[in-house]
Amino acid sequence: MDRAVLINELKQLLVTECDKEDELQWQEILDDEPLFGSDSRLDLDSLDALQLSLAVQKQYGVRIEGASEGRRVLRSISSLAEHVLTQQ
């Protein structure tokens, strides 16, 4: 799978699954910007992390196991794409 295509798909998935359509366009999300925490401008919470994890599992067949892996994988779009590519 092409990494650039995957990154764009993941950005679109995030906006849709986390109900952010009214707040931002997927094209505005930077590949390496933090998705969660005080440094993030996206205002995502733990429910969003769960929604995104389930959507990635459904769409790509890749699981995100546990809180520590979730924090590492969901750090940015780039880290999420890397996880999907290495687990597929």
List the helices and strands and how they pair.
Elements: H1 3-17, H2 46-60, H3 66-73, H4 77-87
Helix pairs in contact: 1-2, 1-4
Written description of the protein model:
By secondary structure, this protein is mainly α. The protein has a single domain, classed as Non-ribosomal Peptide Synthetase Peptidyl Carrier Protein, Chain A. 56% of the residues lie in helices and 0% in strands. It contains four helices and no strands. α1 packs across α2 and α1 packs across α4. It is globular, with a radius of gyration of 12 Å. It starts with a helix and ends with a helix. The mean pLDDT is 96.
| CATH architecture group name | Orthogonal Bundle
Question: Which fold does the CATH topology refer to?
Answer: Non-ribosomal Peptide Synthetase Peptidyl Carrier Protein, Chain A
Shape designation: globular
Low-confidence stretches: none
Descriptors:
88 residues; mainly alpha; Non-ribosomal Peptide Synthetase Peptidyl Carrier Protein, Chain A; 4 helices; 0% strand; globular
